[in-house]
Amino acid sequence: MPELPEVETTLRGIEPHLQNQRIARVEVRDPRLRWPVPDEVQLAEGQIITALRRRGKYILIELERGGLLLHLGMTGSLRILTESRIPEKHDHVDISLENGVYLRFNDPRRFGAFLWTGDALGQHALIRKLGPEPLSAAFTADYLYECSRSRTVAVKNFIMNGHIVVGVGNIYASEALFMAGIHPNRAAGRISRQRYQGLVDAIRDVLSRAIAQGGTTLRDFSDSDGMPGYFAQELLVYDRAGAACFQCASPVRQKVIGQRSSYFCSTCQR
Fold first, then answer.
1. Residues carrying an active site annotation
2. Does residue 270 belong to any structural domain of this protein?
3. Contact status, residue 184 vs residue 156, Cβ threshold 8 Å
4. What is the pairing mode between strands 49-55 and 113-117?
5. Number of structural domains, the chain?
6. Which of 95, 123, 151 is the last residue in one of the domains?
7. 94 and 60 in one domain?
8. Are 257 and 171 in a shared domain?
């Protein structure tokens, strides 16, 4: 599943092609996504795209009146086409611009979303209760510490909860906890403010580097396959079960926490 850095890379790839352009047509070939694509998306036709931004793993396309809310789900991608092309099997939605450019939404497993709202995008039911962005000033050690008091949930599940902080997915949660030296199964309420500072720093660091890496891997989505560049740096623990820890040479362990595979070093992480 695309995580926050990949969604941010996608946004940066498509934004220059869409910003301030007028939508000529929205063509829905198959509305059967995670939620059915509503007929109201046609209301975007004739409107100018005034802004594009990301909120968690959602891409928000703001219009003069209302806007579109997109999610890539498990396998979704967005592709910029500079000329009309015959759609393939999983090309479910096209946004055609007056200048001849197309934005094509592809999703083989149909877990993505392509939704409309006539209100402010930030007030959409899927958006308004989300936690702060991990790279924003609102995401601090004090905030995590206060939110975690009396919580017995594993800290990995805690930081992956979108109501606490958005966009910290499975890969980057495992990496950040390793960098902070915190065991992923440790109760969130049993972590000190000081250790949360280390975790905040680690989350910011790993996400910032992943965004930078993705941005240099694929800067232009025009006529590409629409897939963002993934974090090319060698991951420290994720998907390295049985391999030697880079810090202490103990074997990296794997355990299912909250129905997700978690990777950690039981020597370095407490």
1. 2-3, 57, 260
2. no
3. yes
4. unpaired
5. 2
6. 123
7. yes
8. yes
In contact, 171 and 238? CB cutoff 8 Å: yes
E-strand ranges in 195-259 read 253-257
List per-residue pLDDT tens for the chain, 270 residues long: 678 988 998 999 999 999 999 999 999 999 999 999 999 999 999 999 999 999 999 999 999 999 999 999 988 999 999 888 899 999 999 999 999 999 999 999 999 999 999 999 989 999 999 999 999 999 999 999 999 999 999 999 999 999 999 999 999 999 999 999 999 999 999 999 999 999 999 999 999 998 888 754 444 555 455 666 556 557 899 999 999 999 999 999 999 999 999 999 999 999
Q: What does R_g of the chain's alpha carbons equal in angstroms?
A: 20
Chain-centre distance for alpha carbon 174:
16
Give the type of residue at 118: G
Residues 118 and 147 in one domain: no
Q: Calculate the alpha carbon distances from 79 to 38, 43, 46, 59, 259 in Å.
A: 21, 22, 21, 14, 32
Domain that holds residue 47: 4-123
pTM: 0.89
**Distance of alpha carbon 207 from alpha carbon 168, whole angstroms:** 8
Between CA 78 and CA 61 the distance in angstroms is 13
> Look-up: residue for tokens 């992943």?
210
CA distance 238 to 3: 14
Question: How far apart are the C-alpha atoms of 159 and 173, rounded to whole Å?
Answer: 7
Domain boundary among 75, 97, 123: 123
Q: Is residue 211 part of a domain?
A: yes
State the angle between helix axes of 4-18 and 193-217 in degrees (0 to 180), rounded to the nearest 10.
Answer: 40
